[in-house]
Design a protein that fits this description.
Blueprint lengths: L3 E5 L5 H11 L3 E5 L2 H10 L4 E5 L5 H8 L9 E6 L5 H7 L3 E4 L4 H11 L18 E4 L7 E8 L3 E6 L9 E6 L5 E11 L4 E8 L2 H21 L13
Helix pairs in contact: 1-5, 2-3
């Protein structure tokens, strides 16, 4: 089965080269136009490879997010760099391969072929499960912070971010519950650690949203009890 590849680039002179390279190397292509959309795609689906332009806002966050995914699910990351950007920057961000703009087909083909052995198997229909679901924090005056959801309870959640998150009150968030509804509200960051983990207590949320979370938790507990009797893990908010 063919591996898949996610291209993150506006429709530009790069796209015909990337599309032709995908066809010649038997990769199933997928496209999005911003790094923000790429982060959302990476949270919902598994990809064998990711190609993004480092000139795009949020490109670094998208690359960093790939390193939070389970090792077996991480895509090979190709970073497109312009002549004015030092190639070392791409590797510092976490890219595995560098593509120089303007793209040349032979250069792209060589890089893809070199990376082929590191690409995970067919991911065209593979959804993500468990800790690979995303929560977005919309902090006023700052870039949207994506994070991986670790645990959620009726009172709050724990997350893994790409860097330290400050202790804050009323941080707006958006969350797609795994196999459940999308919810939004505000939460208070009550503990963090140097690895980027944080615990948050829900502080502002519509009654209907709370009901959605409680119903989702009840459904998860019921599903677990059918498989193996055990208590649903709760978020711990002890200060670290």
């Amino acid at each position: 089965m063919k591996p898949n590849i996610l291209f993150v680039s506006a429709r530009s002179a790069c796209m015909p080269v990337l599309e032709e390279a995908a066809a010649l190397t038997h990769l199933v292509p997928d496209f999005c136009d911003t790094a923000h959309h790429a982060v959302e795609r990476l949270g919902r689906r598994c990809y064998s490879a990711l190609v993004l332009d480092l000139d795009h806002p949020g490109a670094r966050s998208a690359i960093e997010m790939t390193h939070l995914l389970p090792a077996a699910d991480r895509p090979v990351v190709f970073a497109m760099v312009s002549p004015r950007m030092h190639v070392a920057t791409a590797y510092e961000y976490g890219a595995n391969f560098v593509l120089y703009k303007p793209l040349q087909l032979e250069q792209v083909l060589r890089s893809i072929r070199a990376a082929r052995g590191f690409m995970p198997a067919d991911r065209r229909q593979s959804p993500r499960h468990g800790v690979s679901h995303l929560v977005h924090f919309d902090i006023p005056g700052e870039v949207c912070h994506p994070a991986l959801l670790l645990e959620v309870s009726a009172s709050g959640m724990s997350v893994q971010t790409t860097g330290e998150i400050a202790l804050k009150e009323h941080v707006p968030f958006r969350l797609q519950l795994p196999n459940g509804p999308a919810v939004k509200g505000a939460a208070e960051v009550i503990w963090t650690d140097s690895s980027g983990r944080a615990g948050l207590m829900f502080s502002k949320m519509a009654a209907q949203t709370r009901a959605h979370i409680q119903n989702w938790l009840a459904a998860q507990q019921k599903a677990r009890s059918r498989r193996k009797p055990q208590l649903l893990g709760a978020v711990s908010f002890a200060t670290v």
